[in-house]
Write a structure and sequence with these properties.
Helix 9 packs across helix 10. This protein folds into 3 domains: 288 residues, no CATH class; 113 residues, no CATH class; 61 residues, Arc Repressor Mutant, subunit A (Orthogonal Bundle). Strand 6 and strand 7 form a beta hairpin. The protein is an alpha+beta fold. It is built from 16 helices and 17 strands. The structure holds zinc ion (ZN) and manganese (II) ion. The site of manganese (II) ion (MN) has 3 residues, from loops.
C-alpha cells in the first residue's frame, strides 16, 4: 500500500501508435488490409529490396493532418522523412521510415473527460507519420515465422506530455484518442488487430523528507488493449513505490535512468527488457529517396474545414440542447454516424428525447447483438423520425414501438405501415380494452385476491395484472386506460 504521508504523484505520458485506414501502404501500392494470408501483400519496396524507390501515400498524410489538426496541433508547413536504424527480423530493410526533427504536427492538446463533466487538458508533444514493421508469428512449433503484410502500413505516432497523474486520467485520454481517430475516419483502431497500441511511460515523484525523489522512468512497450494499459499503469505505480521503499537511495531516476519493460498478460505484471535507447542510438538521417512534403495553407485550411464537430463538443451540445443526461449523450457520441442519425431525425421534426429512447433502447440492444454501432443497424433518419412522431402523437405506445423498431431494422419500410399491418397501433377504444381487462381478471384469481387484500403483495400483483392485459393486447392498449379500468374493476382507489 502507498503510504499517504509520502505524497506520491505518478507522472505518466503516453505514446500511441495508430494504423491509418488507407487502402494501400505508406510508400508502395500494396494493400493495407488485416488478416490476409501471410506475405501476400508485399512488394520489393515494402520488403526492403535494394535499389527500389518509395513513393509517399498522400492519403496517409491527409489522415495524419486531420488527426493533428483535431488535436489542436500546429501543423508543419514543411515536413520530411528520416531513416531510423533498427535491426529486427520483421524489418528486413534495417530501418524504419519515420519523422525525426520535423514532425507533421506539434504542440497540441486533447481533453480527457473525468468524472461528470470535468475535463483535463493533456498536452500533445507531437504526432508524426511513419511505417509499421512486419510481425513475427510464433504459432509454429519449430520456428518463428515472419509476416510482412504489415510492413509499410502507415502508422501515426502520437506522443503526449507526461501530464497524467492517475490511472483514471490515462484511461480517459486513451479512450478519448480511440474515439477521436475513429470519429475522423483516420483509423478503425481495432485493438485486437493491433491497429492501436499504447506505450505508457511512468515514474513517481515522491515528496519525502523535504525532497522530491524521482523513480526511474519506465516505458512499457506495445500494449494492445485498454485492459492491458490499465493493469500496466496500476502495476507499475505499486512496483515502483515498493522498489523505492526497499532502496530509497538507489532506486532513483538520476542513478538508473530509463528502462523498457514489457507486459506479461498471463501474470499481469511488467518485466524488464532493456535499458531505454536514446535518439542517438538510432542514427537518424534524412531519407535520400524521398522528397519533403509541403503542406500549404489551402491544404491546411481544407483539412480544418473538413473536421466538423468533434465528439466532446457534440456531447456537450446534446446535454445542453437536447437535455440528455451525460450517459445518454456519451453513448450517442461513441461514433460520428450515430449522432448524425439522431441529428437528421431531429432536423426532420422529431422530438429528440423520443429518438434517443428508441436509439438507446432497441437500437443499442440490436447493435450490441450484432457487434456494430447503432448507426450501422440500418434505420434511416426518416423512419426514426416517423416512429418518434407516432409515439409523440400517441398512435403507438412504447412497447409496440419497440416491436415496430425491430421490424424496420430487419425489413425496412415505413413504421406507420408496419404498425398498421401488424395491428400494433395504440388501442384507446374502451370496449376493446375492457374485454382484455375482464379476461385477465377472470384468469388470475390469486393476483386479484392479492390486490384486493392490500398490504405488501398489492403493488406486485397489480403490476402483474397490468402486464397480463398488455400482453393480451400485444402491447397496443393505452396503459393509462388499462390502469384506470383495472383499478375501478378491482375496487381500489383510482389514483395513488
Ligand atoms: Zn509493398
Ligand atoms: Mn514509433
Amino acid at each position: 500500500m502507498i503510504d499517504a504521508a509520502d505524497n506520491v504523484t505518478p507522472v505518466i505520458g503516453l505514446e500511441i501508435h495508430v494504423e491509418l485506414a488507407t487502402a494501400t501502404k505508406m510508400f508502395c501500392r500494396c494493400r493495407n488490409h488485416f488478416g490476409d494470408p501471410p506475405n501476400t501483400n508485399v512488394c520489393p519496396v515494402c520488403i526492403g529490396m535494394p535499389g527500389v524507390l518509395p513513393v509517399m501515400n498522400a492519403k496517409a498524410v491527409e489522415l495524419a493532418l486531420k488527426v493533428g489538426t483535431a488535436l489542436n496541433c500546429t501543423v508543419a508547413e514543411f515536413t520530411k522523412w528520416d531513416r531510423k536504424g533498427y535491426y529486427y527480423p520483421d524489418l528486413p530493410k534495417n530501418y524504419q521510415i519515420s519523422q525525426y526533427d520535423l514532425p507533421l504536427s506539434l504542440n497540441g492538446w486533447l481533453e480527457a473527460p473525468l468524472a461528470e463533466g470535468a475535463v483535463k487538458k493533456i498536452r500533445i508533444r507531437r504526432a508524426h507519420l511513419e511505417e509499421d514493421a512486419g510481425k513475427n508469428v510464433h504459432d509454429h512449433p519449430a520456428h518463428t515465422g515472419v509476416d510482412l503484410n504489415r510492413a509499410g502500413v502507415p502508422l501515426l505516432e502520437i506522443v503526449t506530455e507526461p501530464d497524467m497523474n492517475a490511472v483514471e486520467e490515462v484511461m480517459s485520454l486513451a479512450r478519448a484518442m480511440h474515439r477521436l481517430v475513429r470519429w475522423l475516419g483516420a483509423s478503425e483502431a481495432n485493438m485486437q488487430m493491433g491497429q492501436m497500441r499504447f506505450e505508457p511511460n511512468i515514474n513517481l515523484h515522491i515528496a519525502h523528507g523535504g525532497a522530491i525523489h524521482k523513480t526511474p522512468i519506465v516505458e512499457v512497450k506495445n500494449l494492445n488493449s485498454f485492459r492491458a494499459l490499465e493493469r500496466t499503469v496500476e502495476y507499475e505505480i505499486h512496483r515502483q513505490y515498493e522498489a523505492w521503499q526497499a532502496d530509497p537511495d538507489g532506486f532513483r531516476l538520476e542513478k538508473m535512468g530509463k528502462q523498457n519493460r514489457g507486459y506479461d498478460d498471463a501474470r499481469e505484471q511488467t518485466v524488464f527488457q532493456r535499458e531505454k535507447e536514446e535518439a542517438h542510438d538510432y542514427r537518424y538521417f534524412p531519407d535520400p529517396d524521398l522528397v519533403g512534403v509541403v503542406v500549404d495553407r489551402p491544404w491546411r485550411e481544407r483539412i480544418r474545414a473538413g473536421i466538423g464537430e468533434l465528439p466532446l463538443a457534440r456531447r456537450g451540445r446534446y446535454m445542453d440542447g437536447y437535455k440528455l443526461t451525460f450517459k445518454e449523450a456519451d453513448a450517442l457520441t461513441q461514433d460520428a454516424a450515430t449522432g448524425d442519425l439522431l441529428d437528421s431525425a431531429v432536423a426532420a421534426g422529431a422530438d429528440a428525447k423520443r429518438c434517443v429512447n428508441l436509439l438507446l433502447g432497441r437500437g443499442a440492444a440490436i447493435a450490441n447483438e450484432r457487434g456494430c454501432s447503432i448507426a450501422q443497424i440500418g434505420i434511416t433518419p426518416a423512419a426514426l423520425a416517423e416512429l418518434a412522431g407516432m409515439l409523440s402523437g400517441g398512435t403507438i405506445n412504447a412497447t409496440a414501438a419497440a416491436k415496430v423498431f425491430d421490424t424496420v431494422v430487419l425489413e425496412s419500410g415505413s413504421p406507420m405501415v408496419i404498425a398498421r399491418e401488424q395491428g400494433l397501433l395504440a388501442v384507446r377504444d374502451g370496449g376493446a380494452i375492457e374485454a382484455w381487462v375482464d379476461t385477465a381478471i377472470a384468469a388470475n384469481p390469486q393476483a386479484v385476491a392479492d390486490v384486493q387484500a392490500g398490504g405488501k403483495q398489492q403493488k406486485k400483483a397489480f403490476g402483474f395484472l397490468m402486464g397480463q392485459v398488455m400482453q393480451l393486447s400485444r402491447g397496443t392498449a393505452e396503459p393509462g386506460e388499462v390502469q384506470r379500468l383495472l383499478r375501478s374493476k378491482l375496487g381500489i382507489p383510482v389514483t395513488d
